[in-house]
């Protein structure tokens, strides 16, 4: 007879993992991170579509597709905007540029942001649309956590404290229940 060893599967207790998720989820930022968050907030407040330097972007015009009759065949109304972040992205601070390089959906392998627009029949409107899309793309990449008010911080601390006390009370109750079961047995 051969014994077959079955692989053991680690058992995960959902209550323990849930507790870790609840109590370990919030991590307050360090002083350096807090300063960087403040700088990001300030930059985002000042960042408007007009603050993107037009000279840093290369614009390429081509014929648009779709409906428009003879206008589509004659006029180069489609606009392709290229912004090389490695050489011309100096208007974006380094701490924001890192996030843009990681998260932008318009980024190529050469660290260029390429945005196209042919929604309008007019070239000027498509240029403005490209710059609006570039602004939105940069803005979406930058994640800044919201500011927590003092009342909310106090409420969270109180909830955490109450939760820990409740857990310890339940733990003591379980312990006393189990110790009461042990007593009174005679040994043979």
From TrEMBL:
Any one GO MF annotation of this record: translation release factor activity, codon nonspecific
GO biological process: mitochondrial translational termination
Domain Prokaryotic-type class I peptide chain release factors, chain residue ranges per copy: 63-79
InterPro entries (alphabetical): Mito_Release_Factor_mL62 (IPR052104), Pep_chain_release_fac_I (IPR000352)
GO CC, alphabetical: mitochondrial large ribosomal subunit
Basic and acidic residues bias (residue ranges): 150-173
Alphabetized Pfam families for the sequence: RF-1 (PF00472)
Annotated spans, Disordered: 146-188
Name this protein carries in UniProt: Prokaryotic-type class I peptide chain release factors domain-containing protein
Classification lineage: Eukaryota, Fungi, Dikarya, Ascomycota, Pezizomycotina
């Amino acid at each position: 007879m051969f014994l077959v060893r079955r692989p053991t599967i680690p058992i995960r207790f959902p209550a323990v993992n849930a507790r870790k998720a609840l109590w370990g989820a919030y991590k307050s930022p360090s002083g350096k991170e807090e300063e960087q968050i403040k700088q990001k907030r300030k930059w985002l407040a000042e960042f408007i579509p007009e603050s993107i330097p037009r000279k840093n972007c290369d614009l390429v015009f081509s014929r648009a597709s779709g409906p428009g009759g003879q206008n589509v065949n004659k006029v180069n109304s489609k606009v392709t905007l290229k912004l090389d972040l490695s050489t011309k992205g100096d208007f974006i601070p380094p701490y924001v540029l890192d996030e843009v390089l990681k998260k932008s959906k318009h980024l190529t392998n050469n660290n260029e942001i390429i945005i196209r627009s042919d929604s309008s029949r007019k070239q000027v409107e498509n240029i403005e649309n490209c710059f609006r899309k570039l602004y939105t793309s940069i803005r979406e990449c930058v994640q800044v956590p919201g500011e927590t008010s003092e009342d909310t911080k106090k409420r969270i601390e109180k909830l955490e404290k109450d939760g820990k006390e409740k857990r310890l009370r339940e733990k003591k109750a379980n312990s006393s229940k189990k110790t009461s079961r042990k007593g009174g047995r005679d040994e043979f």
